[in-house]
Amino acid sequence: MMFALVGNQNCGKTTLFNQLTGANQHVGNFPGVTVDSKIGQMRGAKDCTVADLPGIYSLRPYSAEEIVTRDFLLDRHPDGIVNIVDATNIERNLYLTLQLLEMDIPMVLALNMMDEVRGNGGTIDVNKMSAELGIPVVPISAAKNEGITELVQCAVQTAKAKHRPLRVDFCDDGPVHRCIHAVSHQIEDHARNAGIARRFAATKMIEGDTDIIERMVIDRNEMELLEHSIVQMEDEGGLDRNAAIASMRYDYIEKLCDKTVVKCKQSKEHLRSVAIDRVLTNKYAALPIFLGIMLLIFWLTFDVIGAFLQDALAAGIDRLSAVVDSGLKAYGLNPVVHSLIIDGIFAGVGSVVSFLPIIVVMFFFLSILEDTGYMARVAFVMDKLLRKIGLSGRSFVPMLIGFGCTVPAVMATRTLPSSRDRRLTILLTPFMSCSAKIPIYAVFSAAFFPNYTALVMGLLYFGGMLVGILVSLLFKKTLFRGKPVPFVMELPNYRMPSVKSVAMLLWDKARDFLQRAFTIIFVATLAIWFLQSFDTHLNFVEDSTQSLLAWVGKVLTPIFRPLGFGDWRITTALVTGFTAKEAVVSTLGILTGTGMENLSAGLSALFTVASAVSFLTFTLLYTPCVAATAAIGRELGGKWRGAIVAVFQCVVAWLFAALIYRGALLVF
Hints:
Strand order of the largest sheet: 2-3-1-4-5-7
Structural class: mainly alpha
Shape: elongated
Radius of gyration: 29 Å
Number of helices: 31
Strand content: 5-15%
Largest sheet: 6 strands, mixed
C-alpha cells in the first residue's frame, strides 16, 4: 500500500517521515527543503510505503509544491493519506485538512507537537474531533517518537478497510452550500469519468482551477450553467467565489475548535523567539549580525578548528604516502606504476581528501544555524534586498543551498511560484560558491595570505554574492523585466538543534565528498597523471613539459595570459575543474609534484600574489561542474541552454579576473 504524507510547512512532516521510514533525510526549518516527493518503506508495516510530499498550505495550484502534491494525490491514487498538523497552530493547519477530506481518500489526522500543547496548558479532545471530522485522529510527537506506532497501525487499518471520510460537507445552509450542491450535481458524470471526487471537483470548479476543468472535459454550454450558479452565490453572499469558499472553511474550523480545543498559553518558546527576533530581524542590526556570524564561522573553520584538523589529516596522508613510497621502492616496482600510485593517486586524491575536515566543520555550523530556525530569519531579512535586484526572499533558499552544492540548489528553484523568478534564480545560483571550491580557497589562502585566511574566505563568498547581484541588476533591466512574486513566510520558533539532524547532514556531506574523491576525482587524477606522464607517441616522459598535457595546456594558455596565468599547468588545472572543482587542487598537486605539506611552495613557484588573486577570482566565478551545468540545462528546458549559461559564466569570470588582476598589480 502507498500512503501520502501531507501537511503545512514547518509542521514536523519530514521529521515524521524519518520516524516512519528511518530515512536519512535532513530536516530543515525553511520552505523548499522538500522539492519533489520522497518515498520510503514504512517501518512496522509490511509492504507499505509512504511518500513525503512538499509542505503546502492549500491545494490551490499556485506554486510548484501545491502542483506536485495535488497531482500525486489525483494521479497516483494513494491508498491513504496521513495528514500531519501542528497542534500548537491547529486553526491554520486544518484549512488544508478540509480540502484533503473533500478528495474522499482514506485518511488519518496526526496531531503533532502534542507535548508542547500539554506543556503550555492546552488540550485537544481527540475523540470529539475524530467524530466531527469523520476520520481517525492520533496525537503524536514526531520529534520525541511518541505515538508513531499507533499512527502506523491506525493508517494501515484505515487503508485496508477503505474507510473514507464520513464528512466532506462543511456548511449546513446558505448560498455557498447551495452553490456547491448545484455544481456537484451538474458535474457528477464528468467527475466520475475523470476519477475525481465529486465534492473536490465541485469546489475546484467554483475556485476556477483550470487544470481540474480540463481534466473533466466540460463544454462551453455546461460552463455557462455552472457560472450562473457561481455568480448567484456571489450576489447572495456578497463575497467573490474564492473568498466565499475560504470563509466557509474557516467558519467550520472555528466551530470545530470551539468544541474540541482548549488553546494553550503563549508558549515560552514563542515568547523567547519574539524577544530574540527584536534583535536578529531588526532592520538596522539584522544584516550586520548575519555578516558577523558568517565571518565567525569562516574564522573558526579556516583558522581554528578546521585548519587544525586539516593539517593533522594532511600530515597523516603525507606520512602514509612516504611509507608506501619506501615500500614500493624496496619492492622494486615498475617505475611507471610507482609514479601512478605516488604521483597520481596519493598526490591527487590525497590532496583533496585532506580537505574533508574543513567541509565537515563548515557544514556543522551551517546546520546549527538552520536547525535553530535562524536561516528562516535570514530569508525574511534578505527579502527587501533581493526585491531590489528583481527577486524575493524565497529565492534566498536555493541560493543558500548553492553554498553546499549547485545541483540541489538549481533543483530547489522548482519551489518558486513564477517562471521568471525561477529562471533568474537559476542563473544566479552558480555565483554562490559551492563547497567543492573550498579546497581551492583554502590552499591558496594558506599559501599567499596565511595571516588573513578567514578574511579572504569571507571576501570570496561575499564577492560571489556581489557579482550575482550585479548580474541580476543587468538581467532585471533586460531579459527579466517585471516584479517578483510576493513573499509570505512562516517563521518557526527558535529551537535547540537536533543532534540527529546535524549528524545526518554531516554524514551526507562527508559521504558525498568522499564518493566524489574516489570516483570523479580519482578518474580525473588518473587522466591527468596519464596525460602528464606520456608524450604524443605514448612514451613515458620524465619532464612533464614534453607531455600530452603540456601540449593541450600550451594551446589554451594564450586565452588566460591576460589574467596572469602564463604557465600551462595553471590552464590545465582550470580545465580539469570542469569535471569537479576539487580536481583543480589535485591537478596542481600532481603537476607541481608536491604533497599537501609542500603544495604552498609549489604554488609560490607558479603564481605571484597578483596572479593568485586573479586565479581565486576566476575559480570563484567560472562555470560549475559538469553535473551542475547539466542540471541547469534540464531546469531551463534544454542542454544547449546549460551550455550557454556555462559560457556566460566563463566570460563573466574572465572579465572580473582580468579587472582584479590589473588592480592587484598596483597593490602587490
